[in-house]
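Re: [help] complex structure
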Amino acid sequence: MNMYWHELKATRKSTIIWTLSITLLIIFFMSMYPTFSKEAESLRKMLEGFPDALLKAMNFDMDTFTSILGFYSYIFLYILLCGAIQAMILGIGILSKEVREKTADFLLTKPVTRQQILTSKLLAALTSIVSTNIGYLITVLAMASIVEPNSFDQKLLLMISITLLFIQVVFLAIGISMSVLVPKIKSVLPISLGTVFGFFIVSMFASSIGDEKFRYITPFQYFDAPYILQNQAYDLTFVVLSIVLVSVLTAASYIIYVRKDIHAV
Amino acid sequence: MNVIEIKNLTKKYGKARGISDVSLTVEEGEIFGFIGPNGAGKSTTIRTLLTLIYPTSGSATVFGKDFIKEAPEIKKEIGYLPSEVFYYDNMKVIDLLKYSASFYKKDCSNRINELAERMDLDLNKKIDDLSFGNKKKVGIVQGLLHTPKLIILDEPTSGLDPLMQQTFFELLKEENQKGATILFSSHILSEVQRLCDRVAIIKEGKIIKVEKISTLKESNYKKFRIETKSEINKQIFALDGIKDIEVDDHVIRFLFKGDLNPIMDKIAELDITNLWVEEPDLEEIFMHYYEKEDKDR
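Output below.
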């Protein structure tokens, strides 16, 4: 437990900053909605002039765009992007910071197993992500009822919003496995941003060409908001895929970390 | 009882460094020195023993327990001070020490204060603001605060001023008298000579010799230096037990081990102007081991 609290304290500041940024971002986006819905007709006309592929890449759907949920599913993509970056930085930093700050010797010569170390760190990272999500969900529900006076399906809003947590868990797992595999990570930020933007670009590409196969490559496509909106359900294949991916990556991280040589620096 | 028993421990890193076939035992209550130049494998051995790295082959026990399987159990009673200390920078010294203490199921706060006072360490400073020497002190307190039964030190004195080094050695001796076993690695002979009971000499990943400090100094060589009026013929001293003869005009130098009488007879035949017979210091003995190894090959 002491390691968990220590980790939590160490990530506290960044968790608060990320939560604030993401909630501010959604407040900003949502407050634009009344303008959008008022100008719906002219906006629709304007967008009709845009190339089809571009609209698809940006997740635009003409029919739903001007409803609150349609609008939300479009802006949610950028919330996901932020969330993915947060999770990735957490995941990569969690073990690599011990090597970078040269504190691995301190921790690993204490009477604990490496499994315990990794578990504490993982739980601390999960706690951090869950707190961000709680803050986000409250904000999103509040904002939606403020900007949309008419009734709308709150359950769907919640179903879409909670995928932020799912995506973050997937990226956390990717981050941790990378931090175990790469021998020495000098700087977390470039690697995190690179990986997340890489997946994001692939996702935009996948949306625009509409090829199913590409959806498997990038976690951004696993919980497609327009899909949830249309079917009122998650795409089961990708739910299973996410669970498998997270389990495999986490298990691999444990196996590798327990056997890894920690070199003097 | 043997606190540490290392058997044929081998660690290969690709081709270059590492250790091969290291075997040694450290008995309960002794201060064991581990000496060799940088890169000889001291740290590798210690880090393997602490399961920071895993051996390619071989085994070891600490307190009679398998060092890998029962690592967490063993580490309850180990205090470790790495050669380079870097701790969570944004923490205060006291917070770090409390965090360290939280891993051991005992109250260490008195011990922390006591050690900090002895080492003249300000507990309320941020670790980030400390000098290298002061960080080292944090490391020392961190390594001793839970009164471990086995203290492992990897080149502990670098960065400490001589006065602090003195205090530190006193602390270690006190711990030792209270029953702690100490494994101490160093490339500085004088500190090993001051502190240790036994010493293992390591070179290029292999243990060359394990010897008591006292035997290392005693049983060995006398250093002779003889100055004569006339030039000396090297052949006069072609005796058993003489090594490293050097003739420099009127001065002859050699190391000798064995019965002193034949040598004295030889010297009596000479017309000498000056004579020195000295105990070689550890440094010379040590160099001798290293040179001998090279010649044997």
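The longest helix of chain B spans residues 162-177.
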